[in-house]
Amino acid sequence: MADKRGVVKRLIDGFADLPGIGRRTAERLAYHVLNMPKEQALAFADAIRAVKENLRPCRTCFNLAEGEQCDICADSRRDQTVLCVVEQVRDLLALEQAGNFRGLYHVLQGRVAPLEGKGIDGLTLDALAARVSQGQFREVILGTTPNVEGDATALVVAQRLEGLPVELTRLARGLTVGASLEQANREMLVDAFAGRRKF
Ligand SMILES: [Zn+2]
Fold first, then answer.
1. What gap in Å lies between CA 176 and CA 170, rounded to an integer?
2. Which one is predicted more confidently, 195 or 3?
3. Start and end residues for every CATH 1.10.8.420 domain found in the chain
4. With bands split at pLDDT 50, 70 and 90, how would you rate the model's confidence at 176?
5. Which of 21, 139, 163, 171 has the most C-beta neighbours closer than 10 Å?
6. Which of 38-42, 80-84, 89-93, 112-116 has the lowest mean pLDDT?
7. What confidence tier does 32 reach under pLDDT thresholds 50, 70, 90?
8. How many angstroms is it from 96 CA to the middle of ligand 1?
9. How far is ligand 1, taken at its centre, from the CA of residue 116, in Å?
10. Phi-psi sector, 112: left (phi>0), alpha (psi -120 to 50), beta
11. Residues of the chain with CATH 3.40.1360.10
12. What is the crossing angle of helices 7-16 and 23-35, to 10°?
């Protein structure tokens, strides 16, 4: 609390730290907050606090969850036989936004990057293998980014799941080789699913 900046300055600095927000825009947003109804502003502040204090990795899939399990794992209407493996929560959110995948996910929490010397440390591969070993999935879709690191990551996943009775597929490359899933638009992601092929 010993922050000597004034509260308005702190608010402006907070906005200016966000990606894609310049100083002028940060000032505009801060003054917008000053003019907001109190309840609306407090609800916004509360949402920021809640995501930092209440969210943790889902015990099952490592998506963000408010409790033990995320909303997707807890949703029995989702196809329990198809699993899509992604690098990070952002990718999962992009695929959910596209809205055509109705199966379950597994978030690796990273990727391998051979050129940067980044191996499998920290990836949730053990948990993935344990899930798939249980035999509920007929297909595992390798939904890693369509670039060198994503391909290397898909290979590592495939090796770990080798011998398990499940079909491995890879998302089609679509129009944007090298683009991250979150940069892809809805049609590209729908196409990527529709065109997935055996790995
Ligand atoms: Zn989950």
1. 15
2. 195
3. 7-54
4. low
5. 171
6. 112-116
7. very high
8. 13
9. 29
10. beta
11. 70-198
12. 130
Nearest CA-CA partner of 84 in 67, 66, 64, 61: 61
3-state secondary structure of 164: coil
Dihedral sign, CA of 81, 57, 100, 195? Answer: negative
User: 63, 72 in Cβ contact below 8 A?
Assistant: yes
Predicted TM-score (pTM) of this structure: 0.79
Q: How much distance in Å is there from the Cα of 175 to the middle of ligand 1?
A: 29
Sign of CA dihedral 5, 21, 177, 138: positive
Q: What is the DSSP letter of 113?
A: B
- Cα(181) to ligand 1 centroid in Å equals 19
Ligand 1 centroid vs 93 CA: distance in angstroms?
12
Span 131-160, pLDDT tens digits: 999 999 999 999 998 888 999 999 999 999
The CA 47 to ligand 1 mean position distance, Å, reads: 21
Report the separation in Å between the CA atom of 182 and the middle of ligand 1, taken as the mean of its atom positions. Answer: 19
**7-54 is a CATH 1.10.8.420 domain:** yes
Q: How far is the CA of 173 from the centre of ligand 1 (A)?
A: 26
Q: How far is the CA of 186 from the centre of ligand 1 (A)?
A: 22
Structural fold of domain 70-198:
Dna Topoisomerase Vi A Subunit; Chain: A, domain 2 (3.40.1360)
Cα(154) to ligand 1 centroid in Å equals 20
- For residue 26, the 8-state DSSP code is H
